[in-house]
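Appendix C: a fully annotated inverse folding record. The material below is reproduced so that readers can follow the format used throughout the book. The structure is listed first as tokens, followed by the designed sequence.
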């Protein structure tokens, strides 16, 4: 994914950690495996998947540059073909991760196994795929940067090279740099998993007791005389009807299981890899406002207590490291808010926005926009790189604040980012050439029994679904949106916000 032209400001300490991690990581897809295992589970623990252990083993990684993030200028006629090939790159990494996870003994016996049997063949597949992307672009008269061919190669790294350590919390909406924590390890000699119920995270370091985190929420921009202070709420339910799939029609149109993880859907009820703007208009909605046919979808959260769900043996589910009981939110609040600096214009029909980055474990935190907290703490603490352990009686809260500036022309872009941007964190002003639109905000709550961490182990962990090589890190949380309205609803939302009213 590409980067937005305007970044959120972060505390100096956060920037320092992020910068050091960016040097260690670069950017791309990471695959984790245990070369020389020294960690082990206690002998009296059966593998039910309800405990994970922090990293103590020597770990190898394969870092694959993210090609999609670099493709910012793809002709419209080529985008479908390019999207298919980018999905192939994701599939190749997923398959390589699976092979890495299933060859523990071979890796231990032969130090060159990963290079010869996994990294080398992966490079060849990626090179062929990148070349097909070149052909797709040039066939319709577009230009291709030949330096992208260098992104085919993946590199191996040890845990020490990739684990920048430290913690990051941020009360703003965007973080810069790159950081990750060790996790997702598996025991090589005995073949037992120690990183989450599927062996790829989360681990103890991915959780923090929220009562022990210092307040970090930043203040909002000061309102100007031209501010748009209204709100428009739409009630679309919590996906109690279990409308799921593992597609992503924005990033991977026409590709079944393009997300490699499961999404909750509310709003539009006919969204899958093969949906079009026309089918969106015919899709019906779970929203009380029948003119709101927008699609709101996000990765599910699962509790890893040894429970299996319906997709345990399916693509995007257990077959790709997304395991455990799927949790339905107790509430899902969807609200459009205004700009501190200006009036807003109506969202264009079929505008697509992705907020956050599903690949922050490998891409770094430049596009991270995850916010985790607990009820009773939301105005004090927001977490990006760790999941909160909430006090008894407090609910886990996920919040999203989408990009609120639009380029005024495009409903999407080649990397699905550059047509929208964040307003400046201090002033609320959009970047030059961008217009303020109603900002979509979402707040999801979950009833989760607090995980417990003791002696480097976490019991009854929970985690957001994700690509298997992303290790189920909290920072990989993301949210997707397609604006589809009828009956003049887009204008009604903008007018309500501009007039300072509270509407629904």
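Designed amino acids, in order:
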């Amino acid at each position: 994914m590409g980067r937005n032209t305007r970044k959120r400001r972060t505390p100096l300490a956060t920037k320092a950690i992020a910068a050091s991690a960016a040097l260690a990581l670069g950017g791309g897809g990471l695959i984790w495996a245990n070369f020389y295992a020294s960690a082990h589970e206690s002998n009296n623990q059966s593998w039910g998947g309800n405990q994970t252990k922090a990293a103590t083993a020597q770990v190898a990684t394969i870092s694959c540059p993210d090609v999609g993030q670099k493709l910012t200028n793809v002709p419209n006629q080529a985008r479908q073909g390019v999207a298919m090939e980018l999905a192939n790159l994701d599939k190749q990494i997923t398959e390589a991760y699976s092979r890495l996870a299933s060859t523990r003994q071979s890796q231990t016996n032969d130090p060159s196994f990963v290079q010869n049997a996994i990294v080398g063949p992966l490079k060849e597949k990626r090179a062929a795929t990148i070349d097909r992307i070149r052909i797709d672009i040039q066939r319709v008269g577009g230009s291709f940067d030949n330096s992208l061919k260098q992104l085919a190669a993946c590199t191996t790294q040890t845990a020490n090279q990739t684990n920048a350590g430290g913690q990051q919390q941020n009360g703003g909406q965007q973080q810069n740099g790159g950081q990750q924590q060790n996790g997702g390890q598996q025991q090589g000699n005995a073949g037992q998993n120690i990183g989450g119920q599927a062996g790829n995270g989360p681990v103890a370091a991915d959780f923090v007791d929220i009562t022990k985190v210092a307040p970090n929420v930043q203040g909002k921009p000061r309102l100007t005389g031209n501010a748009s202070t209204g709100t428009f709420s739409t009630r679309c339910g919590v996906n109690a009807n279990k409308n799921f799939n593992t597609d992503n029609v924005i990033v991977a149109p026409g590709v079944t299981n393009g997300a490699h993880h499961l999404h909750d859907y509310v709003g539009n009820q006919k969204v899958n890899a093969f949906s079009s703007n026309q089918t969106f208009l015919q899709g019906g909605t779970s929203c009380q406002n029948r003119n709101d046919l927008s699609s709101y979808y996000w990765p599910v959260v699962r509790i890893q207590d040894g429970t299996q769900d319906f997709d345990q043996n399916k693509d995007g589910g257990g077959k790709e490291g997304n395991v455990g009981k799927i949790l339905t939110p107790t509430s899902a609040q969807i609200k459009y808010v205004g700009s501190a600096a200006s009036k807003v214009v109506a969202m264009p029909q079929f505008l697509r926005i992705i907020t956050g980055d599903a690949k922050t474990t490998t891409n770094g935190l430049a596009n991270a926009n995850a916010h985790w907290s607990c009820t009773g703490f939301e105005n004090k603490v927001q977490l990006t790189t760790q999941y909160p352990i909430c006090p008894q009686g407090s609910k886990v809260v996920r919040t999203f604040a989408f990009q609120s500036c639009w380029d005024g022309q495009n409903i999407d872009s080649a990397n699905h980012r550059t047509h929208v941007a964040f307003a400046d964190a201090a002033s609320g002003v959009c970047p030059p050439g961008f217009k303020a639109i109603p900002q979509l905000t979402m707040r999801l709550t979950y009833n989760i029994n607090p995980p417990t961490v003791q002696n480097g182990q976490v019991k009854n962990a929970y985690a957001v679904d994700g690509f298997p090589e992303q290790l189920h890190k909290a920072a990989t949380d993301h949210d997707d949106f397609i604006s589809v309205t009828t009956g003049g609803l887009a204008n009604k939302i903008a007018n309500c916000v501009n007039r300072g009213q509270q509407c629904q």
